[in-house]
Automatic annotation (TrEMBL):
<dbReference type="InterPro" id="IPR002213">
    <property type="entry name" value="UDP_glucos_trans"/>
</dbReference>
<dbReference type="GO" id="GO:0080043">
    <property type="term" value="F:quercetin 3-O-glucosyltransferase activity"/>
</dbReference>
<comment type="similarity">
    <text>Belongs to the UDP-glycosyltransferase family.</text>
</comment>
<dbReference type="GO" id="GO:0080044">
    <property type="term" value="F:quercetin 7-O-glucosyltransferase activity"/>
</dbReference>
<protein>
    <submittedName>
        <fullName>Uncharacterized protein</fullName>
    </submittedName>
</protein>
<keyword id="KW-0328">Glycosyltransferase</keyword>
<keyword id="KW-0808">Transferase</keyword>
């Protein structure tokens, strides 16, 4: 295990996967570490930075013109440096519509760009040398980079420990025919260490995607080399699963990562236009609003959208429904039934 060098302030290089659900936890982790005295160098891809900048320009009449998304945090005294890196694709390349080629690029080419960046940062930071790499667990290269530059390898998993255990034991799922089998299995999965019996139908559907499987398989081979694994989960909620993982690795539950005052943060991290629903929410009873979202990556067909729209209308519940402009995989604007917004305007 690599050791953190003896210096006044440890210096962590934080690299999230270039997806919204991975960037947000990495930002909150960086803020927490910086508040404990760490120097942070936070790495976004050039594309992600451009998306955040565009979203900020659309959402605010007074955008932050500083290159760093952490400029306000730095004004409060935190030492967070911000750099961007090329991900191997042009800025105008549609990463959502071409998700498989993009993932293949993350698997096969991205590490070269990371190596170049880390080498430069290690060379340039001779006063505050980088002491540890905090990289998203879904990357396939952290152990190689950390070993090359003799820095501590910290793997950051942004999901529950149960999901980690399933990905970690892909070999068992394959041996038992719950992965890679054309058969539609109905039996339970009851052999994963630290995980209680679950239904085969509850396994992540992306297990069936060959490129995603390749990424997960390689990433969870690499994570076995990590010096420390930290996860955005709570020890008391997943004690059995966490204890099982800790038998093999230095695994720590450090969640919830999100700060209690996250709504007051001045850091712009959204890749899409943000709409403030606060005033509308304040008119509704506590706990009465249903939140509906398919996340930042999933593509949904129009039939499903229409079915959900009718279901929400018939339910008569208050709701906030996040509809991405490219949720159907194309720039189709009018995806709701005619007159729908008028029909539910008081509730949704």
């Amino acid at each position: 295990m690599a050791e953190i060098r003896d210096q006044k302030h440890p210096h962590a290089l934080v690299i999230p996967c270039p997806f919204q659900g991975h960037i947000n936890p990495a930002i909150h982790l960086s803020l927490k570490l910086a508040s404990k005295g760490f120097i942070i160098t936070f790495v976004n891809t050039q594309f992600i930075h451009s998306q955040i900048t565009k979203a900020q320009l659309t959402s605010s009449s007074k955008p932050n013109n500083d290159h760093s998304i952490f400029s306000k945090a730095c004004e409060s005294g935190l030492d967070i440096r911000y750099v961007t890196i090329f991900d191997g694709f042009p800025l105008d390349f549609d990463r959502n519509m071409n998700s498989l080629p993009f993932l293949e690029g993350l698997i096969n080419q991205f590490s070269g760009h990371v190596d170049e960046l880390v080498g430069k940062l290690v060379k340039d930071n001779y006063v505050d040398p980088i002491t540890c790499l905090v990289a998203d667990t879904f990357f396939v290269w952290p152990s190689i980079i950390a070993k090359k530059y003799e820095i501590v390898n910290v793997s950051f998993f942004t999901e529950p420990a149960l999901v980690f255990a399933l990905y970690y034991h892909l070999d068992l799922l394959e041996e038992n025919g719950h992965f890679g089998s054309e058969e539609n299995r109905k039996d339970s999965v009851d052999y994963i260490p630290g995980v209680k019996s679950i239904e085969a139908s509850d396994l992540p559907s992306l297990f069936q995607n060959s490129v995603v499987h390749q990424l997960i398989y390689k990433a969870f081979q690499d994570v076995r080399q990590a010096d420390i694994i930290i996860a955005n989960t709570v020890q008391e909620l997943e004690l059995e699963t966490i204890t099982s993982i800790q038998e093999k690795h230095n695994f720590y539950a450090i969640g919830p990562i999100v700060s209690a005052n996250f709504t007051e943060l001045t850091i712009s991290s959204s890749l899409w236009f943000e709409f403030d629903c606060t005033q509308w929410l304040d008119t509704k009873p506590c706990g009465s609003v249903l939140y509906v979202s398919f996340g930042s990556v999933a593509l949904v067909n129009k039939e499903d959208i229409l079915e959900l729209a009718h279901g929400l209308m018939l339910s008569e519940v208050n709701f906030i429904w996040i509809l991405r402009f490219n949720g159907l995989g194309q720039d189709e604007k009018d995806i709701l039934p005619l007159g729908y917004e008028e029909a539910v305007k008081d509730r949704g």
